[in-house]
TrEMBL record:
It comes from Dyella marensis. GO terms for molecular function: 4 iron, 4 sulfur cluster binding; formate dehydrogenase (NAD+) activity; molybdenum ion binding; molybdopterin cofactor binding. Residues 117-498 form the Molybdopterin oxidoreductase domain. NCBIfam families: Fdhalpha-like. This is Oxidoreductase alpha (Molybdopterin) subunit. GO terms for cellular component: membrane; oxidoreductase complex. Belongs to the prokaryotic molybdopterin-containing oxidoreductase family. Pfam families: Molybdopterin, Molydop_binding. Residues 650-759 form the Molybdopterin dinucleotide-binding domain. Its cofactor is Mo-bis(molybdopterin guanine dinucleotide); [4Fe-4S] cluster. PANTHER family: PROTEIN YDEP, RESPIRATORY NITRATE REDUCTASE. Keywords: 4Fe-4S, Iron, Iron-sulfur, Metal-binding, Molybdenum, Oxidoreductase. The keyword Metal-binding applies.
Length: 774
């Protein structure tokens, strides 16, 4: 799987990292990525075009750009994402002729993708156990026939990963809906679904309410459960500015993350030459994994107490009473819940002391305008929705939503995951979406709710779904429970992958399997009407154009919109949609998006302005699209999802290394955490390690439990113990290696998000033999 190929010298592979984030280490890493992946000229051309007005949108993350007009903003992991896509390496029909799928299965995830870009449409041949070349037309004809042959359209699943453009995603959902189903498992179901469910209930929109400019006005910023040094590196530039203004940045994260501690900006020649760095966090608290509800309740408890004391002393109080009265409901129930929660239980569940929580709350209360940023450390829990809603509660108490310099800022993952949702990738279509489709296309879209990612994999496993189409991604590896997911995929009648590179999901063939290679963001997309741009929406609802400039990796590649249109035509001979016309001219797709979603008024015109345009966000304007028209304080019962039932249980989170993009493993280093050349590690607090009689470098077994402490039958064995400054009671290992610890039904009850960051585990000396040197 994705562990490094051979056993390594411990001392060389585990060494604390003393430097700042960014700096020369980042430049060296980019030089290495270029050297390994591509000709220098091609890479210079590619990197010069990233996030420019006439360039392409960086596939690295969804952090916005200062108006998309600045000169090249250096970002190590963005550069890695670009070179990985624009690589000179190719995965050709000759490659597939040489390797059976069973053989490729033994390769690492890194090695599979490192073969380079897919060049030809391929179809699986079960007799030879190989992918063989197929023409586009034949592939489409066979796929269309297989889809039409299903007894019910609801037996097909339409997966999407968040890199697809608005145009591709819109056509994809249109295809699925005209075909007759709402089964849209997508990567957000494993990512920010807790935000998509939790935020609308509280504030009426499922997105963040801040824009980049708000960071210039905020007077406190909280970074909760996200690691920008690795996952949103351009955000460090913003946080650096905030820090230089003397504004407090409070971090709540069980792990020390270097990017949140200090940063040397590669954009700043003086810092680069002198080696100076800018401190990021003014205060860094390390709650336990899963301790966020308790931390938020503790901060609210202090706030209510300090508010009462201030009122008693003749002050105006610390709550924003005018805002609360005019805009919210539910305050009394929240206050009762928080007051009924003891400090002792808050300390136990959060892993923080009362004094620490009071410091955090004091900084919060002293600031007029506060932004809360958060990531997977909040959402990927069994109580992800409640986590998100407690953050909102705390913000609402001081009117920190819908005013300049304040708000909630979920850090989205894939570069267009938010846009895909906006244009209709959802298993629960609302009336407006269905009306829009009816009005514009004249067919009756299905209204029954479809499957999210967990439900889709379950349906596949139980034989209720028989076809799976994947617009990008690596569903089988990204999903929890490979023991259940991998065999399920092999039972399908049809699987279709639209992809840029080979990954493990492609090696789980169904009765019929197709691998369809597509253009990437960096490449010229030529259609009937000429070269096309696509559009994407970033984490802050800015929509802008992206146009590739590189020669495509192969002449056989097609664009995602063109592939979706081809499959739709082959599947729906009576279609009411002019697929060919739409795919030939993306302006027409945008006209249709605008017709279905009025929020995109004047889409083509507005997206041609440099920097694009902002999609209106009602909550940011203090218009609350909730049933009672108010922002709502919402309760979370209890304090954390899984106070481990027995003392020997620890809580494990799976996290990303610095050298990966989700299931794409660029390499085996995790520079800021001091790991070189390996991924088979588990980060443990030194006291927790010693308490089990274990030491640095020991091989240990990680056995997973259900929340009640009974084993769930899943384990990862033989990991190397790394003593680390992580909160007590908490351990971390890498994703996807840790996915085997989590059963499919261990997810947030409300949003279906797998509990990737709340896995109760026991650690013990390993019984597994150490893998021999390769
Ligand atoms: N280079 C690179 N960029 C990426 C990605 C990538 O893989 N590589 N992935 C993209 C995607 S799809 C996404 S969703 C984002 C992910 O970006 P992040 O949200 O930063 O993702 P993670 O690495 O999963 O780490 C989350 C952080 O949560 C902390 N954490 C774990 N458990 C808890 C907890 O219980 N409470 C709190 N407060 N913190 C906790 C961890 O210590 C870690 O620092 O990044 C996007 N950008
Ligand atoms: N244990 C654990 N599991 C997790 C997570 C975690 O933190 N812990 N995080 C979850 C999260 S936040 C997410 S978002 C999911 C990610 O799940 P996915 O989005 O399904 O996975 P990726 O690894 O991003 O997909 C990588 C593949 O996308 C394809 N690809 C790349 N670029 C393009 C393109 O432009 N077009 C097309 N068609 N294909 C392309 C390539 O073939 C590549 O192999 O994983 C989730 N799984
Ligand atoms: Mo994500």
């Amino acid at each position: 799987m994705s562990s490094q190929p051979k056993d390594l010298d411990l001392e060389k592979s585990i060494q604390p990292y003393d430097g700042p984030a960014g700096g020369w280490g980042a430049l060296r890493a980019v030089a290495k990525a270029i050297r390994e992946q591509m000709a220098v000229a091609r890479s210079v051309e590619a990197l010069q075009r990233v996030n420019k007005p006439l360039g392409f949108d960086c596939p690295g993350c969804a952090w916005p750009d200062p108006r998309h007009t600045s000169s090249f903003e250096f970002c190590e992991n963005g550069a890695k994402a670009v070179t990985w896509e624009a690589t000179s390496k190719r995965t050709t029909p000759e490659f597939f002729a040489q390797h059976t799928l069973s053989e490729l299965w033994e390769w690492t995830d890194h090695a599979l993708e490192d073969q380079g870009r897919l060049t030809h449409p391929m179809a699986y041949d079960a007799v030879q156990d190989k992918y063989l070349p197929v023409s586009w037309d034949e592939a489409a004809t066979r796929i269309g026939a297989a889809l039409r042959a299903l007894p019910e359209p609801t037996m097909a699943e339409f997966y999407a990963s968040g890199r697809a453009s608005n145009e591709a995603a819109f056509l994809y959902q249109l295809f699925a809906r005209e075909y007759g189903c709402n089964n849209f498992p997508d990567c957000s179901n494993m990512c920010h679904e807790a935000s998509s469910v939790g935020l609308p209930e509280a504030i009426g929109v499922g997105k963040g309410t801040v824009q980049l400019e708000d960071f210039e006005q905020a007077d406190a910023v909280f970074c909760i459960g996200h690691n920008p040094g690795t996952n949103h590196p351009r955000m460090l530039g913003t946080l650096r500015e905030v820090s230089l203004r003397g504004v407090p940045i409070v971090v709540l994260n069980p792990m020390p993350e270097r990017g949140l501690e200090r940063f040397t900006s590669p954009q700043d020649p003086a810092e680069m030459l002198t080696g100076r760095s800018v401190p990021i966090a003014t205060t860094y608290f390390k709650p336990k994994i899963g301790g966020d509800i308790a931390t938020m309740k503790g901060m609210m408890k202090w706030l209510f107490e300090a508010d009462a004391a201030d009122l008693a002393g003749g002050g105006a109080g610390l709550l924003d009473r005018a805002f609360i009265a005019e805009h919210t409901t539910g305050l009394e129930a929240l206050r009762d819940d928080v007051q009924a929660t003891s400090w002792e239980s808050i300390e136990r569940a959060s892993g923080l002391t009362r004094a620490e929580i009071e410091v955090a709350a004091g900084i919060y209360a002293a600031a007029e305008k506060v932004i809360f940023c958060y990531g997977m450390g909040i959402t990927q829990h069994r109580h992800g929705v409640e986590n998100v809603q407690q953050l909102v509660n705390l913000l609402l108490l001081r009117g920190n939503i819908g005013k300049p310099g304040a708000g909630i800022c979920p850090l989205r993952g894939h570069s267009n995951v938010q846009g895909d949702r906006t244009v209709g990738i959802t298993e629960k279509p609302n009336a407006a979406l269905l009306d829009g489709i009816r009005r514009v296309y004249g067919f009756e879209p299905p209204s029954a709710h479809g499957h999210d990612a967990v439900a889709a994999v379950k349906a596949i496993g139980e034989g209720r779904s028989k076809a799976l189409l994947c617009l990008g991604g690596n569903l089988a590896v990204a999903m929890s429970d490979p023991q259940a997911t991998f065999p399920a995929m092999r039972q399908l009648d049809l699987v279709v992958h639209v992809a840029t590179k080979l990954n493990r999901s492609h090696l789980l063939p169904a009765r019929a399997a197709f691998l369809l290679p597509c253009l990437g963001r960096t490449e010229i997309d030529l259609q009937a009407a000429g070269p096309q741009s696509v559009t994407v929406e970033d984490s802050m609802s800015m929509v802008h154009a992206s146009q590739g400039r590189l020669r495509p990796a192969s002449e056989h590649l097609r664009s995602e919109p063109a592939i979706v249109a081809l499959l739709a035509r082959a599947t729906l001979p009576q279609s009411k949609v002019d697929w060919e016309g739409l795919a030939g001219d993306y302006d027409r797709i945008r006209d249709d998006i605008e017709a279905v979603f009025p929020i995109f008024a004047n889409y083509n015109e507005r997206v041609r302005q440099p920097g694009g345009f902002h999609l209106e966000n009602a909550a940011a304007l203090r218009r609350w699209n909730t049933p009672d028209g108010k922002a709502r304080f919402l309760l979370a019962r209890g304090l954390d999802e899984a106070t481990p039932a027995t003392a020997d249980l620890l809580m494990l989170a799976t996290v990303r290394s610095h050298d990966q993009y989700n299931t794409t493993i660029y390499g085996y280093n995790d520079r800021y955490r001091g790991i070189t050349g390996r991924r088979d590690v588990v980060f443990v607090n030194p006291d927790d390690l010693a308490g089990r009689g274990l030491r640095e470098g020991d091989r240990i077994d990680v056995e997973a439990s259900r929340v009640d402490g009974t084993p769930n039958g899943r384990a990862v064995r033989g990991l190397v113990a790394v003593p680390y400054g992580i909160a007590r009671g908490s351990v971390a290992m890498y994703f996807p290696e840790g996915n085997g610890l989590l059963a499919l039904d261990e997810h947030d009850a409300r949003s279906g998000t797998p509990g990737y960051k709340s896995i109760p585990v026991r650690l013990s000396a390993s019984s597994a033999p150490v893998a021999p040197e390769a």
